[in-house]
Amino acid sequence: MTVNAFRISVSDDVLADLRARLERTLFTTASDSAFWAAGVDPGYLRELVAYWADGFDWREAEASLNAFPHYVAEVAGRQVHFVHLRGSRTEGGPAPLPLVLTHGWPSSFVEMLRVAPLLADPDDPADAFDVVIPSLPGFLFSELPREPFTRRGVAEIWHSLMTEALGYERFGAFGGDIGGGVTQWLGALYPGEVAGVHVTSAVLTTDFSQSPATPEEQAYLDGLAAYDLRDQGYSEIMWTRPDTIAAALMDSPAGLVAWIIDKYRDWSDCDGDLETRWDKDTILTVATLYWATGTIGSSFRQYYDYPHNKPVPPITVPSAITLSNEPAYANLPRSLPERVCTDLRHWSTPGRGGHFMSHEEPEQVARELRTFFGPLRRQV
């Protein structure tokens, strides 16, 4: 299994074509007078597109991304891209604990870059991690699997990446959204190698056939269903007609960035002000990566293939939840994840940081990870 160094390099021709498309963008008018009430505000989108076309410096963003050590590995015959940040250590001190961080949708490895240095180079080297940040299959520089995209399938790929390609015998796992599901599967499938799992969004795959939901649990599930009715328009089309929406987004960079920031604003802990969590340069870094790699359509595969996912079996390794402060997880009772996690050791509700917590609150996430994994460390 080969691992090769990798650098991000977008051609001048791709950037010139992108700029020309941005300059020809046609904008809609708002369907509702209330700001963002019917989706992305056309005025804000016009401002963002103008900056993307004439102001945003991709070469500066590219250089910043390449300051991190990037690699690609062939796993199960497919290319997997990842950032690998080695942890600091003192002579004679313990080796850093390897930790794989998994992002979700519509995200990327960029989500984890603010927290990664805090984990790899903490004040106390005894708290250091070797940080591995893969790009999910079909996202940016990672190829889709040949079989359906499932969280279990990604966990199997990550296990091969960590143990075979990188040679780690024991490691921890962290993630939210899709990454939370992958993280849970890592804990369920590989208790011998996985030291512990830590998620920020409790991915609920509980089977209630043997033990019906309690009144508190049912109240939460009913509230979640009501929220989904208002939020799930994006997912319905990606579950059922991903190629239709992908055709539009692959041809329109303005449409692409609108599709992304609609969820960045809704799911971040930003009180409706997107740029308190996502400044324009970061938004456009992510959007340019999706555009240059042509992977917005393949990023939908995990939605289209979702019926292939099965409930997560019991997770017996030590588990932790630092609960995202977003509507989907408001009032989540601890008893629900305890149905899946038989050793839930850490439960935290900080009330800050939404769906993209590692980007929104990196210091908080670093503290939570050090607190949970601290007692689980041993010479590795």
Automatic annotation (TrEMBL):
Recorded superkingdom: Bacteria
Coiled coil regions, renumbered to chain: none
KW ATP-binding (keyword) present: no
UniProt xrefs under Pfam families: EHN
One annotated GO molecular function: epoxide hydrolase activity
Family stated for the protein in its record: Belongs to the peptidase S33 family.
Protein known as: Pimeloyl-ACP methyl ester carboxylesterase
Species: Nonomuraea dietziae
